[in-house]
Amino acid sequence: MSCNLLAHEEVTEGKVPTTPTISSIIAGIQVQEAVKFVHGMPTLSGRGFIFEGLHHTSYRVEYTENPDCMSHYTLPEIIALPESSNDLTLHQLWQRAVKDLASNQIVIEFSRDVIHKLTCPACNQEQELFAAVGSVSYEDGRCPADGNMRVVQAIHSYDGSQSFGSRKLTQLGLPRFDIFTARSADREIGYLLNGDAGLVLGPLAKEGA
Ligand SMILES: [Zn+2]
C-alpha cells in the first residue's frame, strides 16, 4: 500500500472552500427533509435534488437501482451481540464466528480499511498506528528520524492468525457500534456490537431495543 492512503492537505487535493450561502441553503433543505421524515411525510428518499445556483433552476432526479451493484449488497444475517466492542478481542469475535459458521476457515472483515503500520523505507523503523484510513495526515506519514515518506501498511480483515487478534475491538481504529462480517467458504454473518448502542445512540437505543 502506498502513501496515498494518507489524507492530503485539502488544497493540494484540489478542494475549493464552499460558499456559506449555498451550504446554508442545502443544509436548510436537508433539515426540512429530516423534519418531513420524522412526521411521516413523503421525502426525497431514493431520489436526488439538484440545486443549480447559477441560473436558479432546481429539480428532482430519480435514481434507479442497479440490481447487480455491489453497493446495494445486504448481509443475509446480522447477529446483534450483547457485548460492547470493549468487551471482546478480535480473536474472541473470530472464535464466535468459528462456532456459528462451523468452520475454522473464517475471515473477519472490517467495515473499512485501517492503517496498521507506517514503515520507513530508509531506516526500517515501524510505527503501529491502528487508525482509520484518511485520519492520518500526509505530513504525519514522514519518518520522525529522517523525514522520508513512510509506507502505509493497511489491513481490512483478520484470519485468526495475525498478532493484532489480541486487541480489543476498540483498539483497531474502527468506530463503536460497528458491524464485522465473518465469512466462511459458503456463508457469512454480520456481527453488530450492540453493547455499544447506548454509547452511540443515547436515548434512541432504548426505542430500538
Ligand atoms: Zn526513517
What's the CATH topology label of the largest domain? Structural Genomics Hypothetical 15.5 Kd Protein In mrcA-pckA Intergenic Region, Chain A
Q: Report the structural category.
A: alpha+beta
Give the overall shape.
Answer: globular
Q: Helix amount, in percent? A: 10-25%
Provide mean pLDDT, rounded.
90
The ligands bound in this entry are: zinc ion
* Structural domain tally: 2
- Which architecture name of the largest domain does CATH use? Roll
The CATH class of the largest domain, by name, is: Alpha Beta
Q: If helices are DSSP runs of H or I spanning 4 or more residues, what is the number of helices?
A: 4
Q: Could you state the order of secondary-structure elements as H and E?
A: HEEEHEEEEEHH
Radius of gyration: 22 Å
Give a quick account of the main beta sheet: strands, pairing sense, barrel closure.
Answer: 6 strands, mixed
Strand content: 25-35%
Task: Tell me about this structure.
It is a single chain. With 209 residues, the protein is of the alpha+beta class. It folds into two domains: 15-62, no CATH class; 77-208, Structural Genomics Hypothetical 15.5 Kd Protein In mrcA-pckA Intergenic Region, Chain A (Roll). It contains four helices and eight strands. It has helices spanning 20-38, 90-100, 197-201, 204-208, and strands at residues 47-52, 57-62, 78-81, 107-119, 126-132, 151-158, 179-183, 188-193. Strands 3, 4, 5, 6, 7 and 8 form a six-stranded mixed β-sheet that branches. Strands 1-2 form a two-stranded antiparallel sheet. A hairpin with a 6-residue loop joins strand 4 and strand 5. The chain is globular and about 55 Å long. Bound molecules: zinc ion. Zinc ion (ZN) binds at residues 120, 122-123, 125, 143, 145-146, 148. Residues 120, 122-123, 125, 143, 145-146, 148 line the site of zinc ion (ZN).
